[in-house]
Specification:
Blueprint (H helix, E strand, L loop, with lengths): L1 H22 L16 H4 L8 E4 L20 E4 L19 E3 L20 E3 L20 E3 L21 E4 L6 H10 L4 E4 L13
Parallel strand pairs: 1-2, 2-3, 3-4, 4-5, 5-6, 6-7
């Protein structure tokens, strides 16, 4: 079983890497030169022509700067390792987002407005503090991959079952799920490849009611 999961993980990782490589040259509009901006200040000099933004350094703050939501043509947004506690409800102003990477922050929840990102394909929220997803995640009918490894995420909202025939992978590795928790998730998403860290019940030190 573990061997099969390893192979599956490698295939998923390869497909995501291939997507990232392809997206580096994929043109989203007539004024897109394939560039990934790494400075918000520079991106704001021509907001209508910015399709990719990657931020790894932000001044100490709890959420994204309001100016970012002027970049309404964004297709790919990465905000990694910036210690964000909150994802702004205004995230739904970025209506064309296809790829959202919020890896390695301190997010404890996602806003319900994330469900309005109707073009979103990839959601990466690994290495945060999420305990569940908002009910509105069920509205993301274009979503094919959720990467949520290493979060205290032991319960999925029942609404996520709507994505059973569209979502392809749900990465929950490095989350010590009990057998019953995994089975509850699998019941909601029987057709989805759920990647998880297989542990023995006796090794689980979390308290359960």
């Amino acid at each position: 079983m573990k061997h099969k999961l390893t192979i599956l993980f490698l295939l998923v990782a390869f497909s995501i890497a291939a997507y990232a490589q392809k997206s580096a040259t994929l043109l989203y509009g007539p004024n897109d030169n394939g560039r990934t901006y790494t400075s918000l200040e520079e991106a704001l000099t021509e907001p209508q022509n910015v399709y990719r933004l990657k931020l790894t350094k932000l001044s100490a703050r709890d959420s994204l700067p309001a100016e970012l939501f002027l970049l309404t043509e964004l297709r790919e947004l990465t905000v990694k390792g910036c210690k964000l506690w909150t994802l702004n409800a205004q995230i739904d102003k970025l209506q064309h987002l296809q790829y959202l990477n919020l890896d390695k922050n301190k997010l404890v929840r996602l806003p319900e407005s994330i469900g309005n990102l109707s073009e979103l394909h990839f959601l990466i929220v690994s290495r945060n503090l999420l305990e569940t997803f908002p009910e509105s995640i069920a509205k993301l009918k274009q979503l094919v991959s959720i990467d949520a490894w290493n979060n205290p995420l032991y319960v999925l909202p029942e609404s996520i079952s709507i994505l059973n025939n569209t979502l392809q992978t749900l990465d929950l590795r490095q989350i010590p799920l009990t057998k019953s928790e995994y089975e509850a998730m699998k019941e909601l998403l029987p057709n989805i490849n759920i990647l998880f860290t297989d542990i023995c019940e006796c090794e689980n030190r979390r308290e359960h009611d």
